[in-house]
Amino acid sequence: MDKLQLIVNNGVTDNIKKIASLFPNCVTETTDADGQTKFAVDFDKLRQELSTEVVEGKGERFEFVWPDKKKAILLANSPITATLRPDRNLSKDFDNTQNIYIEGDNLDVLKCLKETYLKQVKVIYIDPPYNTGKDFVYQDNYTESVSEYITKSGEYDDQGNRLVPNMESSGRFHTQWLNNIYPRLKIARDLLKEDGVIFISIDDNEVENLKKVCDEIFGESNFVGQLILKTATDNNPSQINIEHEYMLCYAKSKYAQKNWTRQSEAAGRIIEQYKQLKKQGGSNEEIQKELRKWIKANKDNLPQVAHYNNVDDRGVYSSSSNSSNPHPGGYMFDIIHPKTGKACPKPANGWRWPEKTFWAYDKDGDIEWGVDETTQPHVKKRIETSVEYLRTLIYEDNRATTMMLAELFDGHKIFDNPKPVNVLARILEFVTSDDDIILDFFSGSASTAHAVMQLNAKDNGKRRFIMVQIPENTDPKSEAYKCGYKTLCQIGEERIRRAGEKIKSETDADIDYGFRVLKLSDSNMLDVYYTPAELKQSDLELVMDNVKDGRSPEDLLFQVMLELGATLDSSIVIKDIAGKKVYSVADGYLVACFDYQVTDDVVKAIAQMQPQYAVLRDSSLADDSTATNFEQIFKTYSPSTTTKIL
Length: 646
Fold this sequence. Notes:
The chain is built from 19 helices and 26 strands. By secondary structure, it is α/β, with parallel strands linked by helices. It folds into four domains: 11-63, no CATH class; 83-260 and 390-520, Vaccinia Virus protein VP39 (Rossmann fold), CATH 3.40.50.150; 263-388, no CATH class; 532-645, no CATH class. The strands form seven sheets. Strands 3-21-4-20-19-5-8-10-9-18 form a ten-stranded mixed β-sheet, with helices on both faces. A five-stranded mixed β-sheet has the order 22-23-24-25-26, sandwiched between helices. A three-stranded antiparallel β-sheet has the order 12-13-16. Helix 3 packs parallel to helix 6 (173-191), helix 8 (265-279) crosses helix 9 (284-298) and helix 18 runs parallel beside helix 19 (624-637).
């Protein structure tokens, strides 16, 4: 029996663990009076996480620092008033799809998504700038509002994109890249489910720095592994083949992860053939004979599992597993043959398993005996346990990937070095299930969206994607520009349309091929909405409404959806009530009306729908009487509804 410890847990240690779960970057290594390494809280960083201002502090400790790192932390935590506005014209199947494509600066977009999608995303894949000296990075600002920043001349291109080249000659070459990636990864971590994972593509220029950043944000203990993606044959004269990229993988919580394995497709085919033969009847020996004939005829399509051609009452197995221990020091005991009563020969290195385990296998019918004691017995390896693992070395010729995308665009090379769809689909197949959300906030040509649809078509899944891409201008000299694609977003959106059509024509799979397009924008509300105290008495007549001109009811709806936790893919049903347009979101979770002259009858009808949230504009109510009756109507018909005025 276990002995009672009779020791009170160290409260400080427990508190440090709690802080580490919330802010893994705030826990570091230090030494005690005896020189022993222990974990401790970096209070400077913790104060920064809990402050809206830059906090100064210093002290010797093991840490990864660079200029403006505290500002990058501040930027990740700073609020914004931006919103996302829907664009039905660019969308496909807007009313039915659960896929999302967002145009805009990904930092601001991630902030918009943070509350609604907190702990909702299963997989994040990003392919950020590699910092080759030619890449553009986001020019982030630490103090100004979105609207103020937009108006600064020279900071944005013609489309309003805040991108600047990060030249290798710059004295802040690594610093600028780190300040670019750090706040985005901090917010990304919050979006991941507890068993969620992030994959980040990178090359030699920043792989070491990215690893250190991820160790800090996700926790070193949550590092899952580093995949190497071999993309082409190398011709450089250095004698070291560097034509590959890396893909770092981190878990939100490694302890919440399940094994990333799957039954191989070839194994599945053998099992199906065995089931068909079983239905036809016959002895195990006859079924085994027919199965071996079928495997021999199809062996070229059954890599690594063609030797699973033995049959017993429990199914298909291979007897090729070796019973000998691979190294000296195995188990030494006598195994008596059940028919002859004589000992079977021992392997030179001993048996792989202890005696108790061997006889447990035998009891379950999982030992393959020889005709007599002269043959060593083997454990039957069932094909059901034949699995594929997510390998750390992946080869995919990127020339084929580029050609595939060009074919999708009628032979035009509209994007350089797209990510391999097959590789992304393979990874997603290991780590996602039926209806998981996959996020890519450096979506480029939307390879990730393509991969999600391809995988869904393969297994009839309902995985959903969220793509985020700043509308970066294409080069006027490029083939993409000449084909009419002026921004990367136009390429990505068209790629999703074309990929969906191609997949549907080839598979006829009944999956979601649509996507809702939303665009990052400044708030729908006038400044007075956020700072009413600054409004003067003389200005009241000028501000009859707090909504900006040109903003539609649907614009307001999506801002409210984000505010109240309705996901961007929620169903939206429009109802006509007494001539007013009423929106019912997510099966009545949210009901909103932004029309003017809303009467008691309309308010009553909304209340009778009993939503969790009901929202109207401040200027919607028809008169003072309706405004007075508003709360009483809800108390009468739906007291549990939370009412909001916009």
